[in-house]
Amino acid sequence: MSRRPFASSADLAEKTATLEELAPGVYAYTAQGDPNVGCIVGTDAVLAIEARATPVMAQRWIDVIRSVTDLPFGDLVLTHYHAVRVLGAAAFGARRIVAHRNTAAWIEERGLQDWASEAGRMPRLFEGADTIPGLTRPTDTFDDLMALDLGDRVVELRYLGRGHTAGDIVVWLPDERICFGGDLVEAEAAPYMGDGHIGDWRGATLEAVAALGARQLVGGRGPVVRDEAVAQAIDDTRAFLLAVFDGTRAVRDGGGTPAEAYRTTRAALEPRYGSFPIFEHTMPFNVQRAWDELDGIDHPRIWTVERDREVWDALTG
Ligand SMILES: [Zn+2]
User: Half-sphere exposure of 287 toward its Cβ, with a 13 Å CA cutoff?
Assistant: First the structure.
């Protein structure tokens, strides 16, 4: 009997990527629901945001950057630890690799397992996987705020609380009011909650993102959003987290199982979010993490290839 593939492992269609200049020298490169990246051109170096999953995939993005600047890479900023955003780092030859302190800790703790897990779940994003030289480790970390002087502007890296992982940061341009939000906010894409601190995320952390008052926001996936659409993306993300968390709680309190929680929350979210990228892919993992958090497991359990399979089969079977 053949096993049902993970939703994203059967998704092999190439996506079209779009380069947008959000302000002079500030670029977002979005890809129809694949992980977004960005860069900010300074006076003598480029700040890169996210590294993609492999050096081969990163090089394709670097080739696009080379159409706007020849400057070398100064800082490579990683918004969190996930393999699809960090393992291409070697291609940049950046002077520093900057991330939150908790991201560095999670890479040490679970980076290898996450690499195997994500490569199995989303093989299309791992083209040239044999070019990955090993785990990407930050060279510089911070706790709450780090200001990077690019010569003609200061860019702030801010930690706003636990959310999609324990170490998400946003890249904030205060003058232009542009926010690169990593996976804390998704615009027209489904949030991934498998490593989340859901209670914090849907509460104080998203409040803090909203309080920035961004005029343009680049979420982890999906298009760049502007003005009222920024609030909409934050609201959509919050409502999604709430529906999974409260829906799972209701089933759990009623003596149900994670599989029942998956079925009811999936059905509740499907009308609004069903067409969003990675919706089907994330739901079993989202519900399992909600269940764990409700069980009092504060430190998210590590996803391995085996546990991915086990949870997928148990919840979607
Ligand atoms: Zn992520």
Answer: 29
Measure 194 CA to ligand 1 centroid, in angstroms: 9
Interval between CA 198 and ligand 1 midpoint (Å)? 14
* CA 248 to centroid of ligand 1, rounded, Å: 21
| Residue 14: predicted pLDDT | 72
Q: What is the pLDDT of residue 233?
A: 97
Q: What is the pTM of this model?
A: 0.95
What was the pLDDT predicted at 221? Answer: 96
| Closest-CA residue to 190 (of 252, 135, 239, 263) | 239
From the list 118, 114, 138, the residue with the least C-alpha distance to 126 is 118
Other C-beta atoms closer than 10 Å to the C-beta of 95 total 13
Burial 12-40 (b: 16+ CB within 10 A, else e): eeeeeeeeeebeebbbbbbbbbbbbbbbb
| Distance in angstroms (rounded) separating the CA atoms of residues 304 and 310 | 10
Q: Domain limits of the chain?
A: 15-316
Positions in the chain whose pLDDT score sits under 50: 1-2
pLDDT digits (tens, 9 = 90+) for 278-307: 999 999 999 999 999 999 999 999 999 999
CA of 68 to the centre of ligand 1 (A): 27
Per-residue pLDDT at 10: 61
Ligand 1 center to 8 CA (angstroms): 14
Of the candidates 173, 101, 208, the one whose C-alpha atom is nearest the C-alpha of residue 144 is 101
- Minimal CA–CA distance to 203: which of 246, 171, 143? 246
Regarding the domain with residue range 15-316, which homologous superfamily does it belong to in the CATH classification? Ribonuclease Z/Hydroxyacylglutathione hydrolase-like (3.60.15.10)
Task: For residue 92, give the DSSP letter.
Answer: G
Say what the pLDDT of residue 1 is. 41
Structure letter (DSSP) for residue 305: H
Do the bridges between strand 169-173 and strand 178-182 make them parallel or antiparallel, or are there none, so unpaired? antiparallel
pLDDT at 16: 87
